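Researcher: Next entry in the queue.
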Amino acid sequence: MKITVKKEFLKRMEQLLKEEYEDFLKEYDKKPQKALRVNTLKIGVEEFKKIVPFEITPIPWCPTGFY
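Model: Structure for this entry, 67 residues:
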């Protein structure tokens, strides 16, 4: 899947990131990471873990998120 972004955005990111800009661009060449977050207004995290029909891995920095 090819991701496209506006030129204005890229110019702004180049200004902000400076020497890290090239590393930023390389990330667009990688396969996107698929993840989800549990809507805790609808279901609790523990209940979701019991019913999810596929393997999930917790996201360390997001208590309701899974890869």
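Model: DSSP finds three helices and three strands in the chain.
Researcher: Noted, moving on.
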